[in-house]
């Protein structure tokens, strides 16, 4: 049995967040506009890659680097798609692609970490932590 703070990943075959839902999380949207390479690097790190290397790669090779990491995000979550689609999304709407990728790998991870950090491991505190996180969205 998983501990109460364990993070589970749903593999639904599609992203949990809409592609054009960039402004659903205003803080992340602003941070992505100001420092897209940082957001990209943290997303790459979440799928097992080097944050600094991929953050720098994003500056010079946005579409290629974006497609590679988006492919890893899709693979890790069981999401359908292909490399051509990933390149197109990072070419035509890079901020939406960055935010969708970032939310896909970090939303559940962040929720789980904050629950453990602030509320301990009990199931009642985990429910409280989830309610607190919902208030920030």
Please provide a written account of the structure.
The chain is built from seven helices and no strands. With 137 residues, it is an all-alpha fold. The chain has a domain at 24-105. The longest helix is centred in the C-terminal third of the chain and has 26 residues, at 94-119.
What's the topology here?
Elements: H1 26-34, H2 36-46, H3 51-60, H4 62-77, H5 83-92, H6 94-119, H7 123-136
Give keywords.
mainly alpha; disordered N terminus; 137 residues
Q: Based on helices, strands and strand pairing, what is the structural class?
A: mainly alpha
Measured as a percent range, the helix fraction is over 70%
Largest sheet: none
Cα Rg: 15 Å
Write down how many β-strands occur, each being a DSSP E stretch of 2 or more residues. Answer: 0
H/E order of the elements?
Answer: HHHHHHH
User: Spans with pLDDT under 50 lasting ≥5 residues?
Assistant: 1-9, 114-126
Taken from the alpha-carbon principal axes, the silhouette is globular
Beta-strand content:
under 5%
Overall pLDDT level: 77
Distance between the termini: 29 Å
Total count of helical runs of at least 4 residues? 7
């Amino acid at each position: 049995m998983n501990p109460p703070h364990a993070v589970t990943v749903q593999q639904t075959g599609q992203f949990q967040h809409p592609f054009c839902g960039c402004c659903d999380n205003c803080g992340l949207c602003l941070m992505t506009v100001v420092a897209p390479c940082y957001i990209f690097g943290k997303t790459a790190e979440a799928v097992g890659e080097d944050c600094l290397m991929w953050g720098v790669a994003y500056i010079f090779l946005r579409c290629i680097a974006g497609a590679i990491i988006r492919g890893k995000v899709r693979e890790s979550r069981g999401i359908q798609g292909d490399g051509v689609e990933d390149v197109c999304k990072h070419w035509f709407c890079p901020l939406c692609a960055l935010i969708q990728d970032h939310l896909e790998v970090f939303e559940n991870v962040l929720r789980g970490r904050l629950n453990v950090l602030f509320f301990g491991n009990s199931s009642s505190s985990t429910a409280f932590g989830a309610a607190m996180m919902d208030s920030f969205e």
